[in-house]
Write a structure and sequence with these properties.
globular, five-stranded parallel sheet, 11 strands, single chain, 368 residues, alpha/beta
Length: 368
């Protein structure tokens, strides 16, 4: 009887990944829901979006190609239950790292959007989306959060909260929790990366995702910043390696090139970090490195993700637990002008459950 009661309390929770960064974020959050039924899915869409993905036309995006394959491999290697597109059951709660595409089958669930990292700059496409109704994905991550279809949006810092409010996102939906993968940068200082005191250049996959980029100009700028110091290039995981390598070697023949590897550990050992629009700028800033970015550095410092020693996943899970203590009607009603702010606060019950799990997790880590 007791067992049946326990089973009855289980909730179905779906975690929607995408890139490896997004998927590992979802995995970290899921670790705080030990007593529920947890399922994972790569990022997905409906209708013609799904058909285009199946045809391979969207392989440059997180819907397909390397991103899809990497996420599926990660889920399988970590023995996580997969429900691709969340079609096998109804979900009580859904976590996702993006709302550029918002699947129809999660609209009647409690949905928490989690900031994945830096958002793209606002260009002409951003304004076409915002004011002329173009699809959000046309402006990439600059339109993150604009769907307003989620119930809560967990963001990296107070600076980002203000950033999203300026874009028109409802203040009452925003919760500053910090974000996994960017909330404990000190951990990267303990590493075995063999090089030190170099200039690290993090390239982007702008061209692979159909954006404009002057790569030759970027390499020349990096050479100038290095001023004769050792250059190390870390290629974006989605880049065409042969093309990128040939371009670098033509201008900087002595540069070391890493197509793969842990960029966070490379940043920890570098003196200087050169990026374009990469979220790894935040790792460099958190570790006190000299950072060059196409964004204004002072603006980046204001939005630097909280450094809370890796507790963001717990805080995000607590937001989910708080929503689960509300009826679905109450959650959706609060989004339409009802009382919301008091419901965002972590309840004693959800906080207690999560803290117990965090302490257990820390205890396990200490054993190793």
């Amino acid at each position: 009887m007791l067992q049946n009661q326990t089973e009855a309390k289980k909730r179905n929770i779906l975690f929607i990944g995408g890139s490896l960064n997004q998927t590992t974020m979802m995995h970290e959050i899921s670790k705080h829901f030990e007593n529920d039924d947890l399922y994972f899915s790569p990022y997905y869409g409906d209708g013609y979006i799904h058909l285009l993905r199946r045809a391979g036309i969207l392989d440059f995006s997180i819907l397909g190609g390397k991103f899809f394959e990497t996420t599926m491999r990660y889920l399988e290697e970590n023995n996580l239950k997969i429900d691709y597109r969340g079609l096998q059951r109804k979900y009580d709660l859904v976590f996702t790292c993006q709302d550029l595409i918002f699947p129809k089958n999660i609209k009647n669930s409690r949905v928490i959007l989690v900031q994945e990292g830096m958002t793209d700059p606002e260009n002409i496409m951003y304004y076409l989306v915002k004011y002329l109704g173009f699809p959000r994905y046309a402006a990439s991550t600059s339109t993150t959060g604009l769907s307003d279809l989620y119930d809560r949006f967990c963001v990296a810092s107070e600076g980002y909260k203000e950033h999203f409010i300026k874009k028109g996102i409802k203040k009452e939906k925003l919760v500053v929790t910090g974000i996994p993968n960017f909330d404990n940068c000190e951990q990267f200082l303990r590493n075995e990366f063999p090089h030190k005191n170099f200039v690290l250049v993090a390239t982007s996959d702008a061209r692979e995702t159909l954006k404009l980029e002057n790569r030759i100009k970027f390499i020349k700028e990096a050479i100038k910043i290095a001023g004769g110091r050792q250059l190390i290039f870390k290629l974006h995981p989605n880049e065409k390696v042969e093309r990128a390598t040939a371009e670098i070697k033509a201008l900087a023949p002595d540069a070391i090139i890493y197509p793969t590897g842990n960029i966070n550990e490379m940043i920890a050992n570098a003196d200087v970090l050169v990026t374009q629009y990469s979220s790894c700028s935040y790792v460099g800033l958190a570790l006190g490195k000299e950072v060059h970015s196409y964004f204004n550095i002072e603006d980046l410092k204001k939005m630097l993700p909280l450094q809370n020693k890796g507790t963001s996943a717990r805080s995000i899970a607590q937001v989910g637990m708080s929503l689960l203590e509300m009826s679905l009607d109450e959650v959706k009603g609060s989004n339409n002008g009802g009382t919301t702010s008091s419901k965002i606060n972590f309840t004693d019950k959800s906080k207690s459950i999560s803290e117990t799990r965090l302490n257990r997790s820390l205890s396990t880590r200490e054993k190793f």
